[in-house]
Design goal:
Layout: H1 2-9, H2 13-31, H3 36-58, H4 63-78, H5 80-90
């Protein structure tokens, strides 16, 4: 099913693999306390593009992506202070 969906998107199957890597990386980052905020933000941005892809390119129901966007966006919002701490440590 995902192969057919990514065929409709039109970027090729390499984009499916890249999207999977981003999603797995974001999920792993969610599990590591120090990087939870960045993992949630990565997944939220991914879901924004998933919603836009459904609305603009392929049609279908964007509701699952909207729900995941709400969930990951909430986690990113709850961990928003972690962004400042991590960015200050990088300076």
């Amino acid at each position: 099913m995902m192969v057919a969906i990514f065929d409709q998107v039109g970027f090729g199957q390499w984009f499916r693999v890249l999207t999977g890597i981003v999603e797995v990386g974001g999920a792993i980052a969610l599990l590591v306390t120090a990087s939870t905020a960045f993992g949630a933000l990565t997944l939220a941005v991914t879901m924004v593009f998933a919603v836009l892809t459904h609305l603009i390119l392929i049609g279908g129901n964007p509701l699952p992506a909207v729900v995941l966007l709400a969930m990951t966006g909430t986690v990113a919002w709850l961990y928003r202070r972690s962004f400042a701490v991590i960015l200050d440590a990088l300076r």
